[in-house]
Every structure is written in structure tokens, then in C-alpha cells.
Amino acid sequence: AQSVSQHNHHVILSEAASLELGCNYSYGGTVNLFWYVQYPGQHLQLLLKYFSGDPLVKGIKGFEAEFIKSKFSFNLRKPSVQWSDTAEYFCAATNFGNEKLTFGTGTRLTIIP
Amino acid sequence: GAGVSQTPSNKVTEKGKYVELRCDPISGHTALYWYRQSLGQGPEFLIYFQGTGAADDSGLPNDRFFAVRPEGSVSTLKIQRTERGDSAVYLCASSLNREETQYFGPGTRLLVL
Fold first, then answer.
1. How confident is the model at residue B1 (pLDDT cuts 50, 70, 90)?
2. Neighbouring C-beta atoms of residue B44, cutoff 10 Å
């Protein structure tokens, strides 16, 4: 069965620290990968996505993610976090031709000023 | 521009009652999705519409759940004989067409007492 795993449930960092959130997927065929973010009191927003091409994708607010096919991973990174990055982050995937998103359980990120 | 809107934002009902949740997608978006998010979990797919027809309803948990999109725009998720386990945030998303980025609404928080 298709699945997405996020092993970090809650991450606490100080401002200016570097961030890496893990995401692994279990999918057959061509996979599309996404990171969504949910800021406190707001709805889910797309941070970045990978469909094909360059495996290093850049998103909004300085975030990037790298698709490593051999590791079935799509980790999210940011070199220097800010207090405003406090949010819940969800990794998600679809198959080409299968539109429904499968989400991970999410990682709650808390940035300490 | 206007995003995906959902009404009501909160709904409290009693076990056994019938509820309807409404989703207004972004204008011009042909694809519409319903997801359900339980506490501490990522969103789970319920149903996907392409135009007026349900292209994939494999995520509906049982026959108490039903959704319609009669004119290819607004959609209503209907839950009959609600149970306490139905309590969750129900999310709607829309995309320009299939395989495009999904944009999420703020959700309807349903509480079944």
C-alpha cells in the first residue's frame, strides 16, 4: 500500500539553526512529492513540490527539498530557521495518474526565539 | 484572488444526526477533493471529483458518507447518522485540473457529541 512516513513528530530548534525534516515514501511507479505547511490558525499551504527533473527543488520562504530515489526520501531543509517558521509540516505524495494525496502524520516545528 | 472556502467553520452535532459540509472551490478549478484530518494525523483522502462526477470515492469510510457536486463547482459532503468517531476536521481542496497543485480550504471542524 502507498504510504508516507515522517519520523520526526516534534522538532524544537533555536532561531538561526539549520533544519532538516525527514520524509520517506512507499510508492510504486512515478511519484509526485509535496511539502505542505500549516501555520497556527491557518490552512494548509504548499511549500514546494517535485514532479520531475532536478531532484533539488526550491520552495517559498527559503525552503528546499531533495528527492533521492534510491532512498525513497524527500527531506525538507532550511539553512537558517526563523521564529515565523513555527508550524506543522506535512509531506505528501501522489502517483502519476492518481490524484489523491497521501499525507504523512506531520512534524510539529517549534522555533525558540 | 479568492481561495477555497468552506462552511461552516465549526459544526457541533449530536450522535445520530445528519450533517452537510459545504465547499466552494477556486473559480475555474475542475478538480475537487475532500480529506479528513483527525487529531494528530495527516489529512486522509475521502473523495475526488473531476467536474460533476466522483472520479474516485475509495476513501469514503462507509455508506454513511456521501458527496455531490451537481454543477461542477460547489460540493457538499453529507454524513448520515453521525458517530463520535466522525469528529475531525474536514478539508476541501481544489486544483485547476487533475495532477495540478491542490489548494486547501480552512476546513470544517466537526464535533459529534
1. low
2. 18
Q: Is the pLDDT of residue A98 over 80?
A: no
CB pairs under 8 A between A and B: 57
- 8 A C-beta contact, residue B89 and residue B108: yes
Q: What burial class does residue A19 get, using C-beta atoms within 10 Å of its C-beta: 0-12 exposed, 13-18 middle, 19+ buried? A: buried
CB contact under 8 A, B59 and A100: yes
- pLDDT value, residue B55: 87
**C-alpha distances out from residue A75 to A19, A25, A86, Å:** 10, 11, 17
Contact list in A for residue B43 (CB cut-off 8 A) is 44, 90, 101, 103
Which residue has cell 521564529?
A83
Point out the residue among B40, B95, B104 whose CB comes nearest to the CB of A43: B104
CA distance A90 to B26: 22
Sort out which chain A residues have CB atoms less than 8 A from B95's CB and list them. 99
DSSP helix/strand/coil, B33: strand
Q: Is A69 on the interface with B (CB under 8 A)?
A: no
Of B87, B96, B105, B84, the residue nearest B34 (C-alpha)? B105
The CA distance from B25 to the nearest CA of chain A, in Å, is 14
Q: Is B57 exposed, middle or buried (0-12, 13-18, 19+ CB in 10 A)?
A: middle
Q: What is the residue whose three cell numbers read 505542505?
A: A36
